[in-house]
Amino acid sequence: MKSVIVGTDGSETANQAVRAAATLAAANGARLTIVSAFVPVPRSRVRAEARQAPSDVAFSVNPREDVEDTLKQAVAAAKRVGVENVRTASREGDPADAIISVAEELHADLVVIGNRGMSDPGAKRFLLSSVPDKISHHAPCSVLIVRTT
């Protein structure tokens, strides 16, 4: 295994998937790419926030600000597990599409995703929420769905 992709939205369940992916990447000496999708912040809000920020940091207010913070935290978690080669990718749009796209571009060996949104026990217990379901059906490589709930 040379390339592992993991998606995160910064939630605790996503953090569990990041830790699992990082553990696998570290054990195999693989590159870990952490992906996060975002919906851009309206330009008017970005301009308003930049005007309110101190002048020395106003330049850093941007539509990807929140996702960049999420990715920084995930990289730190991966490095604590021992991953040496960590990349990030932030993509506008649907989270599943973002993860699949990065996996295709990097010829990933494995995509790791949390099972967040699994249905309650009973007749629907085997149905995944939309993101893991879409990834499990459309990823260009193997998929590991980490039990996070």
What does this protein structure show overall?
This protein is globular. It has five helices and five strands; from the N terminus they run E-H-E-H-H-E-H-E-H-E. The protein has a single domain, classed as HUPs (Rossmann fold). 43% of the residues lie in helices and 20% in strands. Helix 1 packs across helix 3. The chain has a five-stranded parallel beta sheet, with helices on both faces. It is an alpha/beta fold and 149 residues long.
Order of helices and strands: EHEHHEHEHE
CATH superfamily: HUPs
Strand content: 15-25%
Mean pLDDT across all amino acids: 82
Sheet having the most strands: 5 strands, parallel
What is the count of structural domains? 1
Provide a count of the helices: 5
Stretches where pLDDT falls below 50 for ≥5 residues? 57-63, 117-128
Strand order of the largest sheet: 3-2-1-4-5
The CATH class assignment is Alpha Beta
Q: Could you estimate the helical fraction of the residues in percent? A: 40-55%
What is the β-strand count? Answer: 5
User: Any idea what the CATH architecture is?
Assistant: 3-Layer(aba) Sandwich
Q: Work out the radius of gyration.
A: 16 Å
**What do we call the CATH topology?**
Rossmann fold
Shape: globular
Distance between the termini: 27 Å
Structural class: alpha/beta
